[in-house]
Specification:
The protein has 195 residues and is of the alpha+beta class. It folds into 2 domains: 22-40 and 127-192, no CATH class; 45-122, no CATH class. It has helices at residues 2-21, 96-101, 186-189, and strands at residues 25-27, 35-36, 44-57, 70-77, 83-90, 111-122, 129-130, 137-139, 146-148, 181-183. The protein has a 4-stranded antiparallel beta sheet, with no helix packed on it. It has a two-stranded parallel ribbon with strand order 1-10. It has a two-stranded antiparallel sheet with strand order 2-7. The longest helix has 20 residues, at 2-21. The two termini are 51 Å apart. Bound molecules: zinc ion. Zinc ion binds at residues 140, 142-143, 145, 170, 172-173, 175, 178.
Length: 195
């Protein structure tokens, strides 16, 4: 009875194994493209968001024009109509160096504050490696069209994603699952890598 059970198990194994080997196309990783990701595992990336540049000055430098390259928010005005103690925002950072270094604007006594807003982006963990696949010629089972595997219709253009799913849409007839492909997993060649 024991022996019989063992034979059954072996048969099952044999039944499953050929379907794995029968994959028609194996799309290999381009080994030259493999790079180790320095931030592997990280799920958070910091990025620069909108930048705000505010300034204050005793009088407005003549290169600053309200509502053109700056936006004045507060000022004092004398009975002679002269504006002083001005605060406002610069439209961009192009003029910062000019305003701070040109002696012409020294008596304007301008101070500039730059606020870089940092945004936090949450995402799936960054994989250990990034890489590209070597394009392979494949044939659609539905319409017979031959094309390169990097032309598969995909919802994403990201072809160096370790977690890429086996998207196999035919670019000609749009058949969603048009041929049997398997993408090589980085784990299969990880031992060869000296990264
Ligand atoms: Zn097709």
């Amino acid at each position: 009875m024991h022996n019989y059970t063992r034979i059954l198990i072996i048969n099952c194994y044999i039944c499953i194994e050929p379907t794995i080997k029968d994959m028609k196309y194996l799309i290999l990783i381009d080994k030259k493209s493999i790079k180790r990701n320095p931030n592997a595992g990280s799920q958070v990336t910091k990025m620069f968001g909108a930048r705000e540049i505010d300034f204050e000055c005793d009088k407005l430098p003549d290169i600053l024009i309200d509502e053109k390259n700056c936006f004045i928010s507060t000022y004092k005005v004398s009975n002679k109509g002269v504006k002083s103690d001005i605060t406002g925002y610069l439209d961009n950072d192009d003029l910062i160096e000019e305003l701070l270094t040109n002696k012409k604007y020294k008596d304007c006594n301008i101070t500039i504050n730059v606020h870089n807003n940092i945004e936090t982006i949450n995402h799936f963990p960054i994989p250990k490696y990034s890489f590209k696949y070597t394009p392979l010629k494949v044939k659609c089972n539905e319409c017979g069209h031959e094309f390169m595997s990097n032309e598969f219709l995909s919802m994403s253009n990201d072809d160096d994603d370790e977690y890429r799913s086996t998207v196999t849409g035919c670019p000609k007839c749009n058949e969603y699952d048009c041929c049997d492909v398997r993408y090589q997993n980085i784990k299969e060649i990880e031992h060869e890598l000296k990264l």
